[in-house]
Backbone:
């Protein structure tokens, strides 16, 4: 059985005091213990951003990649060895800005990957520029007269493009966050968990109190996550209500073929289980 001592490490997280990332880290570690996810069989992949240091703070295999390239790395790990629990981490800038093109196609392919997006509606690591999820009209370092674009809707985009587990939770509600993440990892297919995560240093608008006054749980209102069109409609409720009501919970869940399981190259065994050497001299020569 996996104990908390198996996944704890001595390194101190380098986040601002009060950052929502602390709660996400603790929720993930608790889920790993509850689900008995062995560190040797778990890989956490991240891109660039405050959230992307998380692989450094959990005793599992980890890979911190390039900005916006979290999902290609995660999918490569999954194709190499489907037996691994692959958990990808991004922020709203990394995932919905630089990495949005990968996000769309990973949803479409439905890899069996869990994608946790720390959505603080700001570029935190670069000290406060507007991100794709910053509210229209909000003033930031890069938008001193207010954001002109409409917000990117990650939930609607995930549903439309084929993700099979689409959820949102709030970093200020540990119990709810833990259950949503657990459900995402248990699900067979691509799981998006959009986590509303206050940035206490650079986003003074979307605070813990601001969210606490607005969020409500879908499961408390007899919502069923099996209706495709209802899920898309519900994903726009916060925008339509001008952020007076923000639903959290499981918006959509469906069963669909998993991409890597249909690859003919993996029909017999995992890529990592092939012992025959691969001669890549011709490929190298082609590119030189």
Residues:
């Amino acid at each position: 059985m996996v104990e908390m001592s198996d996944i704890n490490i001595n390194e101190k997280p380098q986040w601002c005091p009060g950052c929502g990332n602390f709660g996400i880290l603790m929720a993930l570690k608790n889920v790993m213990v509850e689900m008995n996810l062995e560190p040797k069989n778990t890989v956490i992949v991240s891109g660039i951003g405050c959230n992307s240091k998380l692989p450094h703070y959990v005793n599992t295999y980890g890979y911190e990649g390039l900005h916006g390239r979290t999902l290609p790395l995660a999918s490569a790990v999954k194709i190499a060895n489907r037996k691994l629990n692959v958990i990808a981490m991004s922020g709203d800038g990394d995932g919905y800005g630089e990495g949005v093109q990968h996000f769309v196609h990973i949803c479409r392919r439905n890899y069996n990957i869990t994608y946790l997006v720390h959505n603080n509606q700001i570029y935190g690591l670069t000290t406060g520029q507007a991100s794709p999820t910053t509210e229209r009209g909000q003033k930031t370092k890069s938008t001193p007269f207010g954001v002109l674009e409409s917000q990117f809707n990650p939930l609607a985009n995930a549903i439309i493009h084929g993700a099979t587990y689409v959820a949102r939770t709030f970093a200020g509600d540990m119990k709810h966050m833990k259950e949503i993440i657990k459900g995402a990892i248990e699900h067979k297919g691509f799981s998006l968990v959009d986590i509303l995560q206050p940035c206490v240093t650079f986003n003074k608008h979307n605070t813990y109190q601001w969210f606490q006054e607005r969020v409500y749980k879908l499961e408390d209102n007899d919502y069923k996550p099996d209706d495709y069109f209802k899920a898309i409609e519900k994903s726009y409720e916060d925008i339509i209500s001008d952020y007076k009501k923000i639903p959290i919970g499981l918006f959509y869940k469906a069963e669909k073929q998993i991409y890597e399981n249909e690859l003919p190259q993996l029909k017999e065994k995992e890529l990592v289980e092939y012992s025959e050497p691969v001669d890549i001299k011709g490929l190298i020569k082609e590119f030189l």
In short: The first strand starts at residue 42 and ends at 46.
